[in-house]
């Protein structure tokens, strides 16, 4: 890895909000505020530049690199995001060129699932792994793989979109337009909705509410999490049988539920995965929590394009 010699400005452009932070040369991340991810692109870029200026001012020393994690597919040069059904207004916007007008120094754009995987690889559960698969389960199901220290890329800046592996024949309509994808079956809004319907409650609730209820022994919340764990375990078995990782980590809001989800993930994985696959892989919980993608934005600009 390059010697940073200065701080990295990190940005995480997610489906609903965009976070900023400073990654100090000694390896600490300071989260420094956020803005809504809201179009049109030109006004978003203006708000982002203000956020960047404020974040850079909070650094202790010079800020010499900019790493940007983006939810969505990137073009081949990794200059712009080209597809995300949640952020259509940002598609094809020349993001890197626009940011270069405002920031003088190396800039890297990285797919958010790769960024989360990079952060876990360098700082968390992926350390020492040769083929590290990282699943981030939140609003969507992001999957990134780090092979010998490098993100696996063969389509749109990433390994494609394995969160949309089909796990249920005749399953529900997914945001991608397909049916029965793992992503739609484990997504946070869907699980919250399932719980709300099971309880017959009128007000909105979140995945966090479901997890809290399950921890308190709520008989409606526990099966919602267990079923999600099963779908996730089946999806993970398919990915493991295909890519042969030596380690798999689970990050994101659903993984925060801990054993309430992970026991059924492990059970379903153990049932569905092949014998050779199982013998040669370790399943773990991610260690970096909610800031993994923002941390990974820093590693994207510190490590990418060395080869
Ligand atoms: Zn899908």
Q: In words, what does this structure look like?
A:
The chain is of the alpha/beta class and 307 residues long. It has two domains: 7-117 and 291-303, Nucleotidyltransferase, domain 5 (2-Layer Sandwich), CATH 3.30.420; 125-287, ATPase, nucleotide binding domain (Nucleotidyltransferase, domain 5, 2-Layer Sandwich). The protein is built from ten helices and twelve strands. The protein has helices at 41-57, 95-100, 112-123, 182-186, 188-199, 207-215, 221-243, 259-272, 275-279, 292-303, and strands spanning 7-13, 17-23, 29-36, 63-70, 73-74, 81-83, 107-111, 131-137, 141-147, 150-151, 247-251, 282-285. The protein has a five-stranded mixed sheet, with helices on both faces. The protein has a five-stranded mixed sheet with strand order 10-9-8-11-12. Strand 8 and strand 9 (141-147) form a beta hairpin. Helix 6 (207-215) crosses helix 7 (221-243) and helix 7 crosses helix 8. The longest helix has 23 residues, at 221-243. The N and C termini lie close together (11 Å). The chain binds zinc ion. Zinc ion binds next to helix 4.
